[in-house]
Structure formats: C-alpha cells, structure tokens
Here is the input.
Amino acid sequence: MAKLALVPTPIGNLEDITLRAIRYLKEADIIFAEDTRVTQKLLKHLGIQQKVISFHAHNEHRFLEKSVQIVEESELAVLVSDAGTPAISDPGFLLVRACLQKNISIECLPGPSALIPAIVGSGFPCDKFIFEGFLPHKKGRQTRLKELSTEERTIIFYESPHRLLKTLEQMLPFFSESRQICVVRELSKMFETYHRGTLSEQIAYFKETAPRGEIVLLVHGVE
Ligand code: SAM
Here is the structure.
C-alpha cells in the first residue's frame, strides 16, 4: 500500500523535529522537497542520506501526475517543505488531493508550524482564530482587509518584512488605531520577539525600526 506522509520540519531551531519525523525521513523511499538544497542541509544535519526530488510551487501542476505516480510506486513517500508543515502556505495541498483521488493514504505528522507558537505566545484569544496566510501581493489586498475588519476572532497573517509596514498602514482605514496587534519575529531563532501594541503604535515603531526576519502578524478580533 502506497502512502504519502507530510513531515513537518523546523522553522528555525533544528532541535524542533520529532523522533517520528526523523524515522520517516530515514525510512522514506523518496522525499519530495520544496527546495532540495534546503532539505539536503537538514538531512545532512540529521546524518540521513536519502533521495530527494523537487516538488515546489512552480511545478505543482506540471509534475503533479508524475509525482502521484512516484507515490503510487513507493511504499512510503514523504513530502517536506523548506520549513514548518507542508501545505500550510507552502506547496503540498494539490499533491494531497491528487493522492486521495487515487485512494493513496495520507498521513500528516504533528510538528512545527509558525502560526501555532505565534498565536499562543501573543496572548490574544486562541480558542477561536482564523488563519489568513499571505495577503494577495497586489490586487485584492484592500478588499480583503476591509472584509476582515469586522472579524471577531484573532486573525493570523504570514507577512514578509518588506511588506509589513505597508500592510499595517493599509489596515488603518478599516481597523481602529487602537486595535491590538502583535508582530512575532524569528520564532525559535536567536532574535525571537513578540512586539505587542496598538495599530498606530506598531506603525510608528516600524517606521523607525525596519523589520527583519520572518514574521507572523496577529490582529486581535474586533471587540
Ligand atoms: N509551512 C510553514 C508553516 O507551517 O508555518 C509556512 C511557510 S510560508 C512559505 C513562510 C512564512 O511563514 C514566513 O514568511 C513567515 O510569515 C512564517 N514563518 C516561517 N518561519 C517563521 C519563523 N521562524 N518565525 C516567524 N514566522 C515564520
């Protein structure tokens, strides 16, 4: 029976990998990776020698059928992304769906993903939340922000450091200046920070201090 396992990998600190994830990486017949060089680096760190082939956003459609065929011919195929849980703002969903259509079993191992430590550490309500991932880069940003401005649950965005200030400024027409925001940077890395404050305080701060590193942006739900 062929199986596709989605194996989460560290989002920074290389100690954040489970024993089961390591075993699956060792036992896999084939590993699909977003960037094979990134995955080979992790495998080297873990002392694992494995065949790694590419499955990234640009070839999802073109190689989908071929990839499903490779999974079908393997006992255990593993999909990893560069960091965190595959298919969460990363390639993977299409492969999962295509495998299910062929009755291939799917397993997703629990493991690192940036959104969970970000919301739990923010102190914002985490009994209910919505994950927005990345906002559209160009068209549709304002419309989406307007739609989200009345959301009562905590909103989680993934954001790049270059776009953070622009996003905060684009929120201003729709979210009140006093809306609580938490900017989480560099989770599990040396310069991990949770920067909490109102929308206007965040804008003022990031105008002065250019943000760096990987960012999760959290917006408190409307009260
Ligand atoms: N699959 C990943 C996951 O499960 O979280 C997400 C991949 S997505 C391409 C990359 C985005 O995740 C980054 O731009 C950032 O918003 C967020 N991210 C990943 N690692 C992070 C970290 N160590 N600290 C803060 N945010 C991170």
Q: What stands out?
A: The first helix runs from residue 19 to 27. Strands lie at 3-6, 30-33, 52-54, 76-79, 105-108, 129-133, 154-159, 180-185, 193-198, 215-219. Residues 11-12, 81, 83-85, 88-90, 113-115, 158-160, 184, 186-189, 214-216 surround S-adenosylmethionine (CB under 6 Å).
